[in-house]
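Standup notes
- DV: blocked on the single-chain target, sequence here:
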Amino acid sequence: METLRLALSSIVEHRMRAFLTTLGVVFGVMAVIAVTAIVQGFFRLYSAQLEGLGAGFLLVFPGNAAAESARKITRLTAGDASAVEGVDDVLAASPYFFDRRTVTLRGQNAEAVVMPTLETYPLIQNHHVAEGRFFTAREVRERARVVVLGPDLAEQLGLVRAVGEEVRLYGVPFTVIGVMEEKDGMNALGQNFDDAAVVPYPTALSMTNPNRGGLLLVKLKEIDDVELATEQVRRALRRFRRLRPGEPDDFTTTTQAELLKSFEEISGVATWVVVCIVGVSLLVGGIGIMNIMLVSVTERTREIGVRLAMGARKGDIQRQFLLEAAALGGLGGLLGIAAGVGVAHLVSAVVPNFPAPFVPLWSVLLAFGFAVGVGLVFGIYPAARAARLDPIEALRYE
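- DV (later): unblocked, structure below
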């Protein structure tokens, strides 16, 4: 305890120098905590969005990167969705793509994510209207110029009662028939529902590119064997697209579980890549601690000589300087953790539609442990040097 007290009292006595010494560790730990909190926040948001869609949610992407001959990006259209809906275990299917457009109301402009889709969208995405209604199958067939707004988009346009208003989209008037319920952030496909303008799929195609395709959103019935249903969807698409036996798929089916696994792997890799890169910063901080500890040994040579002359053992001197170095690393770790949490929350508050950060306990323990470890490792040489001092020579030191 006496050794620890001496180590801490030395840090307190030179607190400004101690603070400046730990800055390298502070910035390294801050970066680790902030990035981890942001990445984990995104992962939790996307996981919640995907889990909300249910285990029976499928995505079908155009193209097949795994097949050399099928890497050319193909189109997925409403015809593909109809073919998929013919599968017994499929509840609904809808084509889906997104586009950024300007929505105008009485001279007021707002940037929106336009989401062309079918009348089955609320069922598939588990996303319903809070005001008014969604468009019908008849409106889809007739290419009606109707739009359902996200709540944030309606607010940007200054709409208190949006239903019945007329906005301009694609340069033509659209009638607002509903406002979607608030989703609070981006969906699993990286789009913000709350800033969206949802329109009938054929209507959007007629005003942009009639040959444009996108993804397929598929909702399965409540079944136990998702893999079997996914295989049935795959076979239905192969028949519709007239792919010969042995010819590779020109599309890719992905289940909710596979999407969750992919997000988890991506977030894990991103976190550890940043941790490894920032580890260099922590090593630089460790070198700073070592340099200051060497200076401290020189400054306190006479003090060390007095302690040795009064019966202190070399091990006591070594432990004191090791504890001091570890305490400096730990101090930098604590300050870095606090700063990292603050930065993550600041980014979340300032950047629109940014998910709430999440700081996992393992990242805090890892960052703090690594900071203390850096202090210990880089304190070994100064501590050994202090312990090797000759008491007589140390007492003569001026």
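- Follow-up: The longest strand covers residues 108-117.
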